[in-house]
Design the sequence.
């Protein structure tokens, strides 16, 4: 482990500008009232907001120029993801721009990349991945669905759970076993035999669906990349997704810290601001420490996404550390706010629900630590 | 930007001086001689003025100096040997001392000819350092010091000590303190070993009995000692909190080793160890990030959290390591030997490290005080109401 990669943490001027414009836009366009509106809506998707984000360049940041993107890196995308976490950005950004785009970028043929990525970059496409068949596990060994062969067609039968924003995806990328191994299939939302069913979620700003495949027939062109090639692609996509969620968590945790500190400065009991009591002050100091640690782990991961060896450590490190920091920050914010923090009216519960939900998605902290333990040779 | 030329010039100057230093380096040279040459060329702390071991350029070039010296195989360990001098004293003297004082103390400090210690805590002044009661009374061009200091690292081999004392008991506690540099070899200074939980005496008690200090050894104004002490403590906390280490080193290394040596496979212990590994790595990355941001001139909250996080985590990990040893954790190989180390002792057995780590959340600012500092100075929370703030020091209740 002597050659641990050393990343540059400081933002470039360009990245700093991106952060400012992103934050400003989100404050104007995605205030808590809008987030609540999206939470109450069935699909949680606003096409005007989606378009605006694409026009700001968010969708194209990490897509190479030859496929219609802006050709920046995950480091730039990470700035946007953190700000989205801070504002509880609702919508299929992670499922489309992180999960689907990278599945295509890593696993697709050159033709498929040229065909599909420009639509994502422009904000014309909403996609998602349909992977899970039970309450946990999306590794190669966890997927049981089989794509059978009938003449020239692949036939998909099975049920996929926890499909993020499945109801608004134009294309669902799913994983099924074929004779050559695990394969990804691109399934149009209007395919015969495909049904998408809404499920209610703990974090109502991030929708899920159950997707049922009943004899869905697909041609060979529906295979993403080579038949049997999906396994390693899937692992990489899951690691990138973990890093994306860790960045969101860092943004959300900072909102919690700021909210709790402001409350502690202005709420008076016993004749003094409650932040002057060490019981509150020390809790907030600890919150700050864990938020700073989460930032470091997430920023580090966002800067080593192209180093596949380091990602085995960096991704579960970031997801586990940021999950715990966000969970504690959100939970402690409720405590510092007292009764107010438990109300429907105050926004803290939206963050608390996001914190719990993102910590469980794609493997909770114990799962992440198992991955990390394997990577560090325990 | 107009700074570009200045930046290039500074780098060229530093590089030229490094070449000069290294071209004259001979492996048979005594380290102290080498460090003297380094000082005279302005490469001790490049940000200090010329003539005081510096070149008056940005501190970011010090990294270049250290890397080049290390690469040439020349000695770089003077900072570790004389940590309290080079790590803390130099910053205080350069911020609060006169040119004459800098000339007198900085060079022999840098070469390690003169070792330094810090005489802060007293039996009645720990976290509440401003309550200190060792006193100095003026006598012409001299001051006469009486009192007791405790927890003084390396006082028994130090030539100079940093010494805040009370010079005015009639004003509130923060206002009546003056900061001196004391000659530890002066008459009336009595250094006694102070044995700690491990049986070592890293620390000392120091008694002052009518010790005379020339007024020329006073740093900054009479009554300004609190401000000077704060500079010292900030330097100390940054020094403790900004040590950058390779991944997997330090106390987590012992824990990983014990996991393998004791052939563990329990999933709960594995999860706990991985959690410590992750927290330790997140701390390491935070220190790295803070150091980068500090060098880039945009320090943020990440620069203040290291001491607190390190202390609590190091305590937890060293305790967990002993737990991984089961019955062997109940042994103390070599037994307790009361002795007095002459330099910082590095890593010992896991049991010794476990005991030594108990002080991490006390020394250099307790974790409680660190949380107050983070809460008040970084997060902007209001302070606790204080009953002693405006009282004359002599009227403050103590015991």
Sequence:
């Amino acid at each position: 482990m002597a050659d641990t990669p050393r990343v540059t943490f400081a933002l470039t001027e360009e990245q700093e500008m991106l952060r400012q414009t992103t934050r400003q836009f989100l404050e104007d366009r995605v205030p808590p009232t809008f987030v609540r509106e999206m939470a109450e809506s069935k699909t949680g998707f606003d096409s005007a907001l989606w378009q605006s984000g694409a026009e700001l360049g968010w969708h194209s940041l990490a897509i190479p120029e030859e496929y219609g993107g802006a050709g920046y890196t995950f480091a730039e995308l990470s700035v946007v993801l953190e700000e989205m976490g801070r504002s509880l950005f609702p919508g299929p950004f992670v499922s489309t721009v992180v999960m689907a785009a990278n599945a295509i970028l890593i696993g697709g043929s050159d033709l498929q990349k040229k065909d599909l990525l420009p639509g994502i970059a422009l904000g014309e496409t909403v996609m998602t991945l349909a992977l899970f068949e039970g309450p946990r596990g999306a590794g190669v060994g966890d997927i049981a669905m089989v794509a059978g062969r009938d003449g020239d067609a692949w036939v998909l039968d099975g049920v996929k759970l926890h499909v993020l924003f499945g109801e608004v995806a134009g294309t669902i990328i799913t994983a099924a076993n074929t004779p050559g191994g695990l394969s990804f299939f691109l399934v149009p939302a209007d395919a015969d035999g495909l049904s998408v069913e809404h499920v209610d979620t703990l974090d109502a700003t991030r929708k899920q669906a159950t997707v049922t495949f009943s004899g869905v027939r697909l041609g060979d062109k529906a295979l993403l990349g080579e038949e049997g090639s999906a396994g390693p692609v899937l692992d990489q996509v899951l690691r990138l997704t973990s890093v994306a969620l860790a960045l969101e968590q860092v943004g959300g945790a900072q909102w919690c810290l700021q909210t709790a500190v402001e409350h502690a400065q202005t709420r008076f009991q016993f004749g003094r601001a409650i932040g002057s009591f060490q019981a509150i002050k020390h809790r907030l100091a600890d919150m700050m420490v864990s938020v700073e640690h989460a930032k470091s782990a997430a920023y580090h991961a966002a800067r080593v996404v192209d180093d596949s060896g380091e990602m085995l450590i960096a991704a579960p490190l970031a997801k586990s550390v940021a999950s715990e920091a966000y969970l504690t920050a959100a939970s402690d914010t409720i405590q510092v706010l007292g009764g107010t923090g438990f109300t429907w009216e105050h926004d803290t519960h939206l963050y608390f629900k996001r914190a719990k939900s993102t910590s469980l998605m794609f493997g909770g902290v114990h799962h992440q630590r198992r991955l990390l333990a394997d990577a560090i040779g325990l | 930007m107009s700074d570009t030329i200045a930046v290039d010039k500074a780098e060229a100057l530093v590089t030229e001086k490094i070449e000069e230093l290294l071209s004259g380096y001979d492996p048979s040279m005594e380290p102290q001689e080498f460090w003297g040459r380094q000082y005279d060329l302005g490469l001790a702390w490049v940000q200090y003025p010329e003539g005081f071991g510096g070149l008056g350029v940005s501190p970011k070039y010090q990294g270049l100096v250290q890397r080049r010296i290390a690469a040439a195989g020349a000695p770089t360990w003077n900072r570790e040997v004389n940590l309290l001098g080079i790590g803390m004293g130099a910053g205080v003297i350069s911020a609060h001392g006169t040119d004459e004082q800098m000339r007198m103390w900085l060079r022999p400090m840098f070469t390690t000819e003169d070792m330094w210690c810090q005489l802060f805590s007293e039996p009645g002044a720990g976290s509440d350092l401003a309550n200190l009661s060792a006193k100095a009374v003026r006598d012409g061009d001299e001051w006469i010091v009486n009192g007791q200091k405790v927890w003084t690292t390396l006082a028994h081999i130090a030539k100079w000590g940093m010494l805040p004392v009370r010079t005015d008991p009639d004003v509130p506690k923060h206002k009546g303190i003056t900061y001196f540099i004391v000659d530890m070899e002066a008459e009336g200074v009595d250094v006694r070993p102070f044995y700690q939980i491990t049986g070592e005496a890293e620390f000392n008690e120091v008694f002052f009995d009518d010790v005379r200090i020339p007024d020329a050894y006073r740093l900054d104004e009479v009554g300004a000692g609190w401000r000077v002490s704060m500079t010292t403590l900030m330097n100390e906390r940054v020094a403790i909190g900004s040590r950058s280490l390779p991944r997997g080193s330090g106390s987590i290394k012992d824990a990983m080793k014990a996991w393998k040596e004791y052939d563990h496979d329990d999933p709960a212990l594995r999860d706990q160890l991985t959690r410590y590994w992750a927290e330790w790595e997140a701390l390491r990355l935070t220190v790295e990030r803070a150091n980068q941001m500090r060098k880039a001139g945009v320090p943020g909250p990440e620069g203040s959290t290291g001491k607190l996080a390190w202390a609590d985590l190091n305590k937890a990990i060293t305790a967990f390591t002993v737990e991984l040893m089961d019955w062997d954790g109940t042994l103390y190989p070599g037994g307790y030997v009361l002795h007095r180390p002459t330099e910082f002792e590095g890593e010992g057995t896991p049991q010794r490290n476990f005991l030594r780590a108990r002080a991490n959340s006390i020394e250099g600012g307790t974790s409680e005080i660190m949380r107050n500092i983070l809460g008040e100075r970084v997060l902007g929370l209001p302070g606790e109401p204080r009953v002693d703030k405006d009282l004359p020091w002599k009227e403050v209740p103590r015991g």
User: Anything to note?
Assistant: Strands of chain A lie at 127-130, 146-150, 153-164, 171-178, 181-188, 194-199, 208-218, 223-224, 268-269, 272-273. The mean pLDDT of chain A is 96.
